[in-house]
Amino acid sequence: MRKYVLLAALLIVSGFMLLSAVDMHPFGSPEKEDMDKYFIDNAQEEVSANNVVTSIVFDYRGFDTLGEATVLFTAVVGVSLIFRRLIK
Amino acid sequence: MMSKIVRTITNILYSSILIFGFYIIMHGHLTPGGGFQGGAVVASGIALVLIAYGYDTVRNWFKKSNLSFLESIGALAFIGIAFLGIGTTFFYNFLANSGGLFGDPTVIGINPGNLDTSGVLPLMNWAVGLKVLAGLGSVVLLMAYGIRKGDEE
Amino acid sequence: MIDNLPFIACAILVILGLYTLTFKRNLIKIVIGLNLVESGVNLFLITLGYKSNAVAPIYTMAAKEEMVLPTPQALTLTSIVIGLATTALILSFTILIYKHYKTIDASKVRRLRE
Known about the structure:
The complex is a heterotrimer. Chain A is mainly alpha-helical. Chain A has a domain at 52-88. Chain A has 4 helices and no strands. In chain A, helix 3 (52-60) crosses helix 4. Chain A starts with a helix and ends in a 6-residue tail after the last helix. Chain B is mainly α. Chain B has one domain (4-146). Chain B is built from 5 helices and no strands. The longest helix of chain B is centred in the last third of the chain and has 26 residues, at 121-146. Chain C has a single domain, classed as Helix Hairpins (Orthogonal Bundle), CATH 1.10.287.3510. The mean pLDDT of chain C is 91. Chain A binds chain B through residues 44-51, 53-55, 57-59, 62-63, 65-66, 69, 72-73, 75-76, 79-80, 82-83, 87, and chain B through 28-32, 34, 64, 71, 75, 78-79, 82, 90-91, 93, 96-97, 103-106, 108-109, 111, 113, 117-121, 124-125, 128, 131-132, 135, 138-139, 142-143, 145-146.
């Protein structure tokens, strides 16, 4: 009985996702690109780097990288806490 | 501990994997890559040595206190470099276009890259690369410690 | 409809991951299902920022000056690292459950204390 309820719920959710995937904007022409146009045009004179993605990750949005480094550190601390018994 | 063929190939390949990973970290501002990707490549080299030689032999080569020391140095260097530009704002790039350590201006447009450019980005790439390398190496070594037999409660 | 094939592929990845997450009873297969959902979401983020006939957003020896959008690629990097942290923690919990209960069947490890 429980299996049939779960199967019906999975079919409804998959129907929603496939319907919205068919109705998206055409693949290859994004809707708005003003912010990325600024990044591509001005990354070489402000940051003086050739790689636009690295200049976004470390200079224009460096705060997100700080949060991600904290998440990685917390994961390593959590794994070390689980296997803590007799490590020397 | 695996067979003789696997150990011989690991001996040959381990230094090439290390050099390739450090190359990806170092040239993060010119080619695709950067800190996170290069750190993952070097950590996969550590996992290769762990699989080929078994945990009891590798335990004397990669001590856990050295790896956690490297990770703390990476995290503190990242925050310290972010604090050094506090005159203008928090994450300010104070070495770009300034003629100092990494301070050449780049040629606008398509060019072959110059390693001396883009101010504070290579230092941050090294800090994050060290942190990811030590973190993933610690996770792999701890899991190999946790699944040993003969340690039942 | 055949033009939006990358978006349909991302939706199929998420649906397969959800099926594995709800209908399988082995704990390792549940971890694989979680990883499938994460991969589907990361692929969807990257296909949102594609322009036709454009190259990668790097100026070193590029073919031309028209580039794809670089912002979703920067955010997907963070998402991949967070997925890695989640998978590492959930695999450590699986090792701990096996040492305590001697089985990894998800319908037999339901008691709060043994």
